[in-house]
Amino acid sequence: MTTIFDYLRWRGDLSFSQSPLNPVDALIFSVLAYLPFDGLVDSGSKRADADLSEIAREFQRREVPKDKIRSVIDLELLRVCGLSRRFGQTVPFDYVNRTDLAEEKQFSAVSFRFGKKSVFAAFRGTDLSLVGWKEDFNMSFMCPVPAQTEALSYLERIASSFRGPLYVGGHSKGGNLPVYSSAFAHPRIQKRIHSVYNNDGPGFDASVLSSPGFKRLENRLFAFVPESSIIGMLLEHQEEYTIVSSSVSGILQHDPYSWAVEGPDFVRVDTVDDSSRFIDRTIRDWLAAVDPEKRELFIDSLWEIVTVTKAHTLRDFASDWLKHTRTMIRTFKNVDPETRSMLVDTAGLLFKTATRNLVAKEPERKKRS
User: Fold this and answer.
1) Which 3 state secondary structure label does DSSP give 259?
2) Residue 268: pLDDT band by 50, 70, 90 thresholds?
3) What are the tens digits of pLDDT across the range 289-318?
4) What does the DSSP assignment read for 277-330?
5) What is the DSSP letter of 267?
6) 94, 149, 267, 296: most buried by Cβ count inside 10 Å?
7) Reduced 3-state DSSP string for 163-224
8) Taking a C-beta distance cutoff of 8 angstroms, is the pair 332, 305 a contact?
9) Residues 6+ positions from 310 with CB-CB distance below 8 Å
10) How do beta strands 118-123 and 261-262 pair?
11) Burial of 293 by CB count in 10 Å (0-12 exposed, 13-18 middle, 19+ buried)?
12) What is the DSSP letter of 104?
């Protein structure tokens, strides 16, 4: 199966002026947003005009802390992009990275100048911080979350600095942010937006989907999800989405390096698989049965239990998961009876919903077999 690395070997010698940006390029920009560009292309950097080839070489000279890297493959992607003419000549700029525990916010973005006058604003998905995951869960009862508000401010700032066409995209939560920021941007900015790419990012509630700004962008919104999509099927999508073949199964398909590429496009399939439909239906049914106030209470109560461990990242938690799990169990036992009952009842409803959908799916499975 060919991947974005094979694409770079095939198409990497062509500039964007020779071959326009395509969905695979958009995914590559979106994944590059996961890299820590601190001190290189942010507001305090003296390398404002350095292209990606120079930035990639600087990364190789630096000792980047492991806790700043989502995946070592991201570093390899940067190296390969830097060596290519297509991406090596792009100029990254205006990198921001802000995490705020009190606001329950995790936001990061970086933009790239490419071609003659175009800009791609890439929003980072959820990183390894636990507060980033908490903000994701907040999307089930809150809109906008802080990252969405900041994404809108970021896009407006980028648009005010450059007058050419705007492309916006991201992966995971970073796929939700470009859609939100583009939908609520000023109409003058919206007119300049060429395309918005949501790569396996969650959708929105009805208020966003029915907004005038969202409707104005409908023909420029492009969503891509893998066959076993879970993250990308959360909440509502009104835009049509393309289903992409993947080399792995289940939740691992969220990894963009597993997506199959053919030429300047993804390998497309007709429909998501049974597991994706099952999870999608279960989450939708559960959200419909639990009102937003109770969702908020449920998620906030769980968050208080998690924070007792004093772990700040997924790596912190995994480093001594047994100890942290025991701490969470002890904390759960000590919460007040009313909160404990609410947690058990709400989690139980999710389990019952899953069981009901599993039973309903069984006749369909037998019929097909």
Assistant:
1) strand
2) very high
3) 778 788 778 777 776 877 788 877 767 777
4) HHHHHHHHHHHHHS-HHHHHHHHHHHHHHHHTT---BHHHHHHTHHHHHHHHHH
5) P
6) 94
7) CCCEEEEEECHHHHHHHHHHHCCCHHHHHHEEEEEEECCCCECHHHHCCHHHHHCHHHEEEE
8) yes
9) none
10) unpaired
11) exposed
12) T
> Each residue of 218-239: b (16+ CB within 10 Å) or e?
eebbbbbbbbbbbbbbbbebeb
Per-residue pLDDT reduced to its tens digit, 44-58 = 565 668 999 999 999
Whether 80 shows a pLDDT value over 70: the answer reads: yes
Side chain identity at 14, as an amino acid letter? L
At 87, the amino acid letter reads F
Report how far residue 52's alpha carbon sits from residue 112's, in angstroms, rounded to the nearest whole number: 9
C-alpha span between 165 and 117 (Å, rounded): 7
Handedness of CA 92, 145, 318, 258 (dihedral sign): negative
Kindly report the length of the chain: 369
CA-closest candidate to residue 11, choices 167, 195, 20, 29: 20
Place of tokens 């009805």: 206
Judge whether 33 and 124 are in contact, CB under 8 Å. yes
Read off the pLDDT of residues 223-240 as tens digits, 9 standing for 90 and up.
998 887 766 656 565 667
